[in-house]
């Protein structure tokens, strides 16, 4: 019976290894022991007032698609029930022009990436708004944030108003399955800034590399003083900030290849900001509950002009 006892030991060892691997890949999310990330809101607010002209009077949203992910993929250890992941584009409305934050993705790229649903009407409205806008910025170079721009028929014209950063165009592999048409960026001069930069009245970009090399936050101050910080995918949902928990390591290190410690430091700063700046509204990248709240509270208006 020695072989049977040996088999029992082997099963126990494999179970321990399996449990450890499951915890490390799916559940574990620790705070970094070193490093820092800070946002100087006084400087951000100063920059928001430096460019001449009126600030935007409203911010509108189009939700173009939805993904469905297991909760633990979004917040490590949250379980395997599905959670809705809306894919949205935002329009800043000025008195005489518009600006757009993120351009979602087209249906073909969405299907290749496994979207749960696609709103062709919302995509059409977003495309029409892109054609008339004066400024385009993206939070980062993933296909569900920049893909809608890459497939526009008037892309050469749109690139004259798009403020893509040096880091964003340096990593086309991060966009897959979206991609730039051959030669589209041949003569493009990217935006290169250090920590913060104002790109329009009331709009400031804040570098936040980690989720991708070109990840950035977008601060918007409306004409009425309302402040919204668009996070891109630094946090997919508010629970990442509330619980100080990253996405599961299986996602961050093996699927999207992000700098896990950098993102955790950013989540720590976002929690500090929310406590220190209660009037600063924070919009995560894919949070349907937050989206519903922003719309019901009048912080966002549904539908592009």
Report on this model:
The chain is of the alpha/beta class and 305 residues long. The protein has a single domain, classed as Ribonuclease Z/Hydroxyacylglutathione hydrolase-like (Metallo-beta-lactamase, Chain A, 4-Layer Sandwich), CATH 3.60.15. The protein contains 12 helices and 11 strands. The strands form 2 sheets. Strands 1, 2, 3, 4, 5 and 11 form a 6-stranded mixed beta sheet that branches. A 5-stranded mixed beta sheet has the order 6-7-8-9-10, sandwiched between helices. Strand 6 and strand 7 form a beta hairpin. The N terminus is likely disordered.
Features:
disordered N terminus, 305 residues, 12 helices, 36% helix, 5-stranded mixed beta sheet, Metallo-beta-lactamase, Chain A, alpha/beta
- Strand coverage percent: 15-25%
The total strand number stands at: 11
Mean pLDDT across all amino acids: 93
Biggest beta sheet attributes = 6 strands, mixed
The CATH architecture comes to 4-Layer Sandwich
End-to-end separation? 77 Å
What's the CATH H-level superfamily name? Ribonuclease Z/Hydroxyacylglutathione hydrolase-like
CATH class: Alpha Beta
Work out the helicity level: 25-40%
Report the uncertain regions.
1-14
Report the C-alpha radius of gyration, rounded.
21 Å
Structural class based on helices, strands and sheet pairing: alpha/beta
Instruction: Please write the string of helix (H) and strand (E) elements.
Output: HHEHEEHEHEHHHEEEEHHHEHE
The number of helical runs is 12
Oligomer: single chain
Number of domains: 1
CATH topology: Metallo-beta-lactamase, Chain A
